[in-house]
Design a protein that fits this description.
Blueprint: H1 4-15, H2 18-25, H3 29-43, E1 48-51, E2 54-57, H4 59-84, E3 91-98, H5 99-104, H6 106-116, E4 120-127, H7 129-137, E5 143-147, E6 155-169, E7 190-193, H8 199-211, E8 217-220, H9 224-232, E9 238-241, H10 246-251, E10 255-257, E11 264-273, H11 280-299
């Protein structure tokens, strides 16, 4: 779609070398020079200047480069859109998710999606909430999933699942046997916490501050899995998504403590950038996510079919 002249300029501007651009485009170096000179005559400005042995873009060249980069992105987007018309036989989808969603919920969704569309390559990038939002804002992924709230106005969010955060303890911990645990009792405990930027960690810190509770000690661990192992070993207590502890609760390795002051729900969101067109592949993934979310909510005892996100209209 882009003219040969624009392609030549883009190659030279990227490599800042006529010879490397010629090699990349499989044309002669005089051919590269011909196209650049023709553009400079057309615009009436110099696009490149040579200082010593190095090639640099002029101010006009830098301005043109910005527009050409946008044209290149549009060309790629158009190519993808045309490919989609052939059906969902090939393509790629990138999804970012916070740790709880990426580790305990999305694998089931991706597995179902791959079963239906085996030709689609899915890239799943798991981090914390902050990393997920950054990847969306940098246009590195098609979708992001994390817990509410998300306040950035450039992102569009819709409900995915409702999640209950529970206090988890070792079966040997005294909280496992107490019918109710009051806020004052938390001050004697070691809290096992995630890294800064974790949505679960932010919620826990906010709630403890509201209660005026400062734990006796904290121990920072790098993942929910590490926290669960430490809780099972009775090294401390923590707060976790019910989805992340289904297996351990069923197996009796950990228990939930009844701490009404720390029992609360949050909403998990499916996010995309407001300026990003949802491809046919992305729309298909969104539909699979909706279907699987119904099973996940029912299995965790956190809802019925009404808990799923609403259908696409």
């Amino acid at each position: 779609m882009l003219s040969q002249r624009i392609r030549v300029f883009h190659a030279v501007a990227s490599a800042l070398s006529f010879s490397r651009a010629a090699e990349e485009l499989s044309i002669s170096q005089p051919g590269v020079s011909f196209h650049i000179k023709a553009m400079e005559r057309e615009y009436g400005v110099s696009l490149f200047e040579r200082v010593g042995k190095k090639l640099y873009l002029t101010d006009a060249g830098l301005t043109l480069q910005a527009y050409v980069q946008r044209l290149s992105l549009l060309e790629e987007e158009a190519r993808v859109a045309i490919e989609e018309l052939k059906g969902l036989e090939s393509g790629a989808l990138a999804v970012a998710a916070s740790a709880t969603i990426g580790i305990y919920l999305l694998p089931e969704v991706v597995g179902e999606f791959r079963k239906r569309y085996p030709g689609i390559k899915v890239s799943l990038r798991v981090g914390n909430k902050r990393h997920t939002i950054e990847r969306l804002l940098n246009n590195e992924v098609d979708f992001g999933l994390c817990a509410a709230p998300v306040l950035d106005a450039t992102l569009i969010g819709e409900p995915y699942l409702d999640d209950e955060l529970v206090v988890i303890v070792s079966p040997a911990h005294r909280f496992a046997r107490e019918p109710v645990v009051y806020p004052g009792e938390l001050r004697r405990e070691t809290f096992l916490v995630r890294e800064s930027g974790s949505g679960t960690q932010e919620l826990m810190e906010e709630r403890l501050a509201q209660l005026g509770v400062e734990p006796a000690d904290t121990m920072q661990l790098g993942s929910t899995e590490a926290i669960k192992q430490a809780v099972a070993a009775n090294l401390g207590i923590s707060i976790a998504s019910r989805y992340s502890v289904e297996a351990e609760l069923a197996g009796g390795r950990i228990r939930t403590a009844n701490v009404p002051a720390l029992k609360f729900e949050r909403r998990l969101l499916l996010l995309h950038h407001k300026d990003k067109r949802l491809s046919k592949i992305a729309t298909a993934f969104r539909l699979v996510l909706q279907e699987v979310s119904v099973r996940q909510a029912i299995r965790a005892g956190l809802g019925d079919e009404a808990a799923a996100i609403p259908p696409v209209r």
